[in-house]
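Annex B.
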Amino acid sequence: MAAAVTRGRNRILDAGTTLGRILFFLGVSAVCGMLVAGLMVPAAAMAGITANGSVQFFNGLPGELTVAPPGQVTRVLAADGSQIATLFNENRTQVPLEQMSPNIKNAIVAIEDYRFYQHGGIDPTGILRALVTNSGGARQGASTLTQQYVTNVLNENLIAQGNDAQVVLNGQKSINDKLREMKLAIGLEKQFTKDQILAGYLNIVGFNANAYGIQAASQYFFSVDAKDLTVPQAALLAGLVNGPSLFDPTQHPEASKTRRNLVLDAMLQHGYINTQQHQDAVNTPIQLKVNPPKQGCAYAAQAQYFCDYVLHQIQNDPAYGATQEDRIQKIMRGGLTIKTTLDPRLQGPAQAQVDATTGTNPDKWGASLVTVQPGTGKVLAMAQNSRTLAGQGTGFVTTYNFNVDRADANGNDLGGVGGMQPGSTMKPVTLAAWLGEGKTTNQIVDASKRRYGVNYPWKTTCGPVHGWFDSSLPPSTDLQNDEPGWYRPMSVRQGIYNSINTATFASLAGLNDFCDVQRAAYAIGLHLGDGNDKKIDLSTLGNILGSQNVAPLTMANAFATFAADGTYCAPISIAEVDNAQGKRIGGQASACKPNALNPDVAKATTNVLQDVLTKGSGLLIPQKLGVPDAAKTGTNQYNNQTWVLGYTKGLATASFFGDPFNGSAARLGRDVTVNGKYYPLVDGAYIAGPQWAQYMQQVVGLYDHGDFDAPPQNLIGGSSPQTRSSDQATGGTSPGQAPQSTAPLPSTARSKPGNGNRKG
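Penicillin-binding protein: predicted structure tokens.
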């Protein structure tokens, strides 16, 4: 192969010689003012622009150019470094000159500016040559690579500032634009070396609407890195910059080949390749391996909705910019590397499981799983059975994330999901309040009591208690369980693992301070899913049984607090954010609060929730993990939002099945067929339960799955009746949403006792 570019200079015409400076001055003043006007903008020459005016204008122009990094691709990565998604406005990945094939460097210089290493930013020889050529009726430009780089930098700066409309294309440039470009090119040559300018040019120039910079272009057209470009490949790409759409080989293969061969001719003429190399390259057919970039979370290789959640975390964080628009620009143009907490070893099984739960799903039932690591708050998996674009799977299409708060997902201004009714999975909060007052799990309470009237004497230090259950005050009803036979004294433990509403209320009535329930909810991080970070309101009786919307991630993290012996950790999804230069600029460290909940209370709560899976509603889940585990089932009053919240020592997972958009009577979870199986009604243990268990069976061994810490005996107490058989493993129901200071829904809006409705 021929040696690299010839470094010899034409010392007579070079801008560094005396005569060169004279010609340079003429080229900038008289020539630029009059002749260049005719060359570049013929119409402007007729406007009577004088040489003297051009000199004055030229002298007043800025001579330094701010070279900001051009927009680059942002990558979102899983914890193991595997790619989740890429995001960009312009598909560009910068690479240093040494990571570019010599072929592309030689090709671009040969065709665009063969005197690049000889001139000082503008090329008087080139200008005069172009003038002579154009005087004969042909058209030839005179912009050097340095000038072209200047133009690209100016345009990129405008785009970065949101001023796309001010971008000036080559055919639209005025004489003033050209003069400004020339002076900035001269200044640029004083700031940077030739190789730096060439690298900057090759990294910024557009080759295609889907490929900016040589690395992206190499990957797009040939699926290779820039360092591996062959002579014919490099020649084809070098030919594109003159007309990316005109010479696009995917659209105009013959024009592209003709242009490529013209580049090869130039490479031969200027000594970059020899005759044999030229002939071999000319005879090489255009062999494309187009690799279109797929940008955005909608095209994520894994975890579409988790990806969207991560981006919303950045968009909502002032650390990444003063305004949300600034943060979006940083994501879309900043070339960030966002390293997340997602564990693909869990994500794959989670996604496969939610898809399997509903199958083809013509009725568009939603299924989701989200897993948090106790003691760190790391979000390890987040999956749901829908997709963000049509044709991506058998699930239905929605951009709404079922698992997170409304502000952390698409739809925050459009009435997005914003959580679902957790039903009886809220009952452990009352249990935690009970234990926090030093009471025991085996203490007997009167679960026969069903009436809590308007003037019931609740013990409260934080304000009034709202709502009532009293059939003497229609439309209210007395408190109901799902089945008869459970209106009797029982232990608090039994009331939880059998999910008996009247037992939970008996515990509530036995508290020294009703407000301890609210405090327990705060301690484990419960808040509403509407996106405003509102604390959950447990001063309304209906809410005690789970009628307010809470996001699955929030619920999983709350139960992770039990698993971590009372240590609350805020959920985190972003381990580290690096800028395009590899410098760390952000990330989420674990934000944990030890003893947020009394450790002994957390241990005793776990001890009771273990019984859910061995004695209570969880017995209906046929799959067993085979390791220490704890859980709580939950179902709303319409059987259309159902849950299992379950955990081991190392993993806490919220499993949801139902209608994530509508927890009302408009769509009942009764007399439905899901994945080929008929359900007279849906209970938390029926679909969400097996979904949780089958997923956890696959991943439980990857994290700590040892014994839970034993609770102190003083919170357990003496023995209690254990009378419920496995075929009675059913539970209570939420009485529905009871607005503050109003009665709960009438019994006609709920299942009648004894109809076999098994809510957990």
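The chain has 23 helices and 18 strands. The longest helix spans residues 18-40. Further annotation is deferred to the next reporting cycle.
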